[in-house]
Amino acid sequence: MARIGIYGSSFDPITNVHLWTASTVAHRCKLDQVIFLPCSSKRKDKTIKTEDLHRWNMVQLAIAKDQRFSADSYEMEQEGWNIYTYDTMKYFREKHLEDEVHFIMGADLLGDIGAGLWKKGDALIAENKFIVMARHGIDMLSTISRSPILRNHDDGRFHLIDKGLAMEISSTYIREELAMGGEPRYLLPDACYDYIKEHHLYQK
Prior knowledge:
Layout: E1 3-9, H1 16-28, E2 33-38, H2 52-63, E3 69-71, H3 85-95, E4 100-106, H4 107-114, H5 121-127, E5 129-133, H6 140-146, H7 148-151, E6 158-161, H8 171-179, H9 190-199
Parallel strand pairs: 1-2, 1-4, 2-3, 4-5, 5-6
Helix pairs in contact: 2-9, 4-6
């Protein structure tokens, strides 16, 4: 049985912080595999700046040298208005029937689920395991204890992880730097930086 983490994001673009986070979680949670899951550009709650093909290609370039990492285009292939994390996790559980599948997310998202802001949030929590990464200013234990949705399933399914080092460089910051003619070369993998320059991405 393998231990697998599902790591979803827009990856627009993928950054060194994404890779560092995935590596840290894999090491500390003893994961055999981390699956990078780029979200659909059709999602109403996301503003994607780049074509799916470019985001997908950059993820592939970024993870190519780490055998623990793979990518899945499942959400990219769905209609944006029909995508719920509950259905995504059901897809991965059925795809990996013999394995233990975990959803990787930040403490801010855990709070949103606990507050009832996610569609099918109750079922998502009831049927899955989670790796929750600390976010500045969020008390994860308190977040769980204050929410009926979360605390009624607090049976070990939440693996709370404090990364130990705050690295808050975002994809948004990189896009803004590139749009202003900045130089964020060392904030993302070299291959992705070269790809962005080659395809003139994120320019005004």
